Amino acid sequence: METLIDTLKAMQKVTCTELAASLGIEPAEAIKMLREYEELGEVVSVNGYWSASERQTGVKEKKVTVCKVERKSRPVVSRKEREPLNRCDILSTLAHGGAMTTAEIAIAVGRADCVRSLVSAMEKLCRDGMVIKLGQGKGCKWMRVKETGENLPAEPKVVSVEKTPGKAFSQPAGVALPVQEAATQEEIKTDTVGDIVQSLPSFTETRANGLILPSLHMANRELRRAKSHVQKWERVCAALRELNKHQDIVRQIVDSSSRIVSEK
Q1: Do residues 132 and 142 lie in contact, with contact meaning Cβ atoms separated by under 8 Å?
Q2: pLDDT in tens, 16-48
Q3: How far apart are CA 14 and CA 20, in angstroms?
Q4: Alpha carbon of 7 to those of 19, 24, 42: distances in Å?
Q5: Domain 4-57 bears CATH identifier 1.10.10.10
Q6: Entry's InterPro entries (predicted)?
């Protein structure tokens, strides 16, 4: 059987897809073999094309003086005119090659010059649940999801919270609340639902004789009203913070106002 090195020597310069077709193997397998030979210094890759190294061929490239020749225009095939990339090719490559980077996938499917555009296709496959993204950034790899789903990332465990009538829900273990939410949680823990309802004047004024739980509509209305009050006080605090930055000017205004009042 013809070896990979012999094929490269015969073909001189080929893409990964052409080499895989010549050897009758999958592009992903060809990529792995080429990477191994590249680490040994037996093959080299330039602009997506592979060839045997000088050590294998025994021939050094001769430097040839290049004469300036008038360039001839040649038809250029734009990326839009290319045949669209089939997702089955990507999934087949991942099935044989395992976890691969975006660049390795692009070379395997013959799109070495479209690595960036391939990222969006991989993200869509990830959203569709067909592939898994391993890591972040340039070095991230992609892996095909097995039919059994056994290589899917584990879902975070949900901690169940027991309901206690008339009391606030306890905080799930291991969940850290923000500072503001944590303070609110501490305040709520000390009050029961009945205490909260009794503290609402708009509700208790009309129902002083007996306790009847308010409707959800009424509770939402009180919540909106409270949020409106909070926003107003936040604006007041923001204004006071700005005034505190110019206490000298504020003091002069106050003094001048007091002087005018006393003169009257």
Answers
A1: yes
A2: 888 888 888 888 888 888 888 888 888 888 877
A3: 10
A4: 8, 12, 13
A5: yes
A6: DUF1627
